[in-house]
């Protein structure tokens, strides 16, 4: 018989439509963590949340951690320092390695879910 205490999962109902991430840059870039493993695994934390970009100033971001992102709604123009550029649409999945300099732009809006190898709030 196991003596370990059960560990519960976390749930945020309808996060894609109900979670409103805070403004983080310029007049149009919003990002907020939904969950983090930091309390359970402080040495190797993983955080996830919602990123939204509205039409306006492009966001140029240098990643100090590894991140995966899936586009949920809208569209993004995503480019990096190598000249690679993608018109991202819902269902597209990206890996941004630590050290990558990424530019996010949109002519409308874009909504994405991300998971990053970082502490909560460290984006």
Describe this structure in words.
This protein is mainly beta and 123 residues long. The chain has one helix and ten strands. The longest helix has 4 residues, at 15-18. The radius of gyration is 16 Å and the shape is globular.
Number of helices: 1
Q: How far apart are the first and last residues' alpha carbons, in Å?
A: 42 Å
Helix content: under 10%
User: Quick one: overall form?
Assistant: globular
Order of helices and strands: HEEEEEEEEEE
Mean pLDDT comes to 95
Structural class: mainly beta
Percent strand:
over 45%
Unreliable parts: none
Number of separate strands: 10
Taking all Cα atoms into account, the compactness measure Rg is 16 Å
Largest sheet: 6 strands, antiparallel
Strand order of the largest sheet: 1-2-3-10-5-8
């Amino acid at each position: 018989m196991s003596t370990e205490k059960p560990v519960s999962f976390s749930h945020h109902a309808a996060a894609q439509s109900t979670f409103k991430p805070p403004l983080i840059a310029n007049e149009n870039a919003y990002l907020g963590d939904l969950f983090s493993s930091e309390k359970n695994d402080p040495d190797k934390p993983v955080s996830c949340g919602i990123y939204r970009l509205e039409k306006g100033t492009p966001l140029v971001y240098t990643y100090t951690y590894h991140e995966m992102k899936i586009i949920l709604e809208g569209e993004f123009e995503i480019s990096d320092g190598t000249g690679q550029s993608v018109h991202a649409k819902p269902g597209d999945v990206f890996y941004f390695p630590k050290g990558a300099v990424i530019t996010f732009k949109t002519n409308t809006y874009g909504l994405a879910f991300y998971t990053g190898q970082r502490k909560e709030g460290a984006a």
